[in-house]
Amino acid sequence: MIRALFRTLAQAFDPALLRVMARSFILTLLSFIVLGVAVSWGLDRLHPTGKAWLDPLVTVAGALGVVALAWYFFLVVVAAIAGMLLEPVARAVERRWYPTLPPPRDAGVVEEAAIALRFTALLIIVNVAVLPLWLLPPVGAVAYPLANGFLLGRQYFDQVAVRRMPPDQARLLRLRYRGRIFCAGLIIAFISLLPVVNLFAPVLATAFMLHLFGGFLPTGGTRSPLPVAPRANS
Fold it and tell me: Is residue 110 part of a domain?
């Protein structure tokens, strides 16, 4: 995992990856603005209250709520955008680090879209479910990273893995290394919430998972992957 992280950082200024990062920056920034406007519109339905002393408080609370909720759900936006940038990031990473790999399998638009939509929906549902737990800060502070770390690790891994193997083999590989994939998901969740850095999170997280996936393969990511089976003790 450490090697995957260092390789990701080492390629951060690769021109090919910088071009994708520029797209990531624009897409995530626009998405954040749209998300903020949507949340603002929803909260604005509560205003005015008809009470002069309460309206300013509602306005301030609404503004703070827009920022807080947009930031809270921004992780979902980052995960959704990552699916759109997967292929250009993968090409840049594999061209530099895994040049002997054969062309990826044709997963098909339907298969890739199904994975992205399924996990985006799961992220939304889980984050909505976790939101009330923040009324008890210690519980929310633990539940939020654990839930998102699990889902993000799984999503990014599946999106990367199905480029190289059928879904059933990808699932077996994910089960075999689920501990490391969960830890990778926690790292992805963390960088997705860092101001400014999260604008580039879809690219960095995808590259990170590509390196992690390459290390899981029997050939170390240098040749076409072989079928795998879960360990007996996993």
Answer: yes
- For residue 179, the enclosing domain spans 2-216
Integer angstrom CA distances of residue 130 from 63, 68, 126, 134, 146: 22, 14, 6, 7, 11
Tokens of 104: 């990826």
**H or E stretch covering 46:** none
The percent of the chain in helix, strand and coil, each rounded to the nearest 5, is 75, 0, 25
Q: How many CB atoms lie within 10 A of CB 225?
A: 21
Q: How many domains does the chain have?
A: 1
Residue 32 domain-assigned (yes or no): yes
Residue 203: inside a domain: yes
Query: For residue 158, which of 232, 210, 102 has the smallest C-alpha distance?
Result: 210
Cα distance between residue 3 and residue 22, in whole Å: 25
Rounded distance between C-alpha atoms, residue 81 and residue 30, angstroms: 11
Q: Across the 234 residues of the chain, what is the mean pLDDT of every consecutive 10-residue run? A: 88 88 83 73 60 60 67 76 86 90 78 78 88 87 90 91 90 93 93 82 91 80 46 42
Model confidence pTM above 0.90: no
Taking the C-alpha atoms of residue 29 and residue 139, their distance in angstroms, rounded to an integer, is 30
Q: What torsion do the CA atoms of 27, 32, 38, 41 make, to the nearest 10 degrees?
A: -140
**3 state DSSP class of 87:** helix
Whether 39 maps to a domain, the answer reads yes
| Nearest-angstrom CA–CA distance, 93 and 83 | 16
